[in-house]
Task: inverse folding
């Protein structure tokens, strides 16, 4: 990532921007979802963003633009989304490194099996598939890969 980016805790006033970023990110990467799926998920994501069930972290640029965000709980990446205009620039890697610093041990993540780019991203960062579910947490027919990464032995440079 460019110099001047930083990870900070999300604030209540970030919620609308994060919801918009989520939708742009999902539409750019989750090609297996239809428009009606994204529309149906949006209020559920808004509800999640308003909850304290996970810790929300924001990646922002030097100019304070929101580049991406991370949902983290119990040594698990519960969600990671990058603004499509900032993909392939290191933001995702920065957020995974932040999650690893927060984790007490190995890091876990669940990934939509049909999201090939996300699966490849996590594999490149040392995650491996440790299980699979035929449906997502809500019982929808979107298979989920359960991935895990041991604590890296080499300190992360990010």
Result:
């Amino acid at each position: 990532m460019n110099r001047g980016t930083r990870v900070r805790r999300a604030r209540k006033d970030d919620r609308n921007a994060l919801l918009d970023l989520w939708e742009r990110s999902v539409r750019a990467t989750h090609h297996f979802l239809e428009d009606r799926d994204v529309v149906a998920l949006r209020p559920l994501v808004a509800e999640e963003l308003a909850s304290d069930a996970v810790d929300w972290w924001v990646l922002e640029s030097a100019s304070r633009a929101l580049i991406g965000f991370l949902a983290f709980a119990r040594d698990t990446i519960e969600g990671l989304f990058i603004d499509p205009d900032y993909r392939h620039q290191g933001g995702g890697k920065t957020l995974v490194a932040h999650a690893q610093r927060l984790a007490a041990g190995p890091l876990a993540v669940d990934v939509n099996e049909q999201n090939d780019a996300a699966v490849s991203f996590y594999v490149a960062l040392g995650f491996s598939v440790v299980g699979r579910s035929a449906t997502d947490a809500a019982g929808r027919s979107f298979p989920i890969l359960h991935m895990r990464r041991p604590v890296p032995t080499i300190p992360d440079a990010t």
In short: Helices lie at 15-29, 35-50, 91-102, 116-124. DSSP finds four helices and seven strands in the chain. Residues 6-149 form a domain with the Aminopeptidase fold (CATH 3.40.630.30).
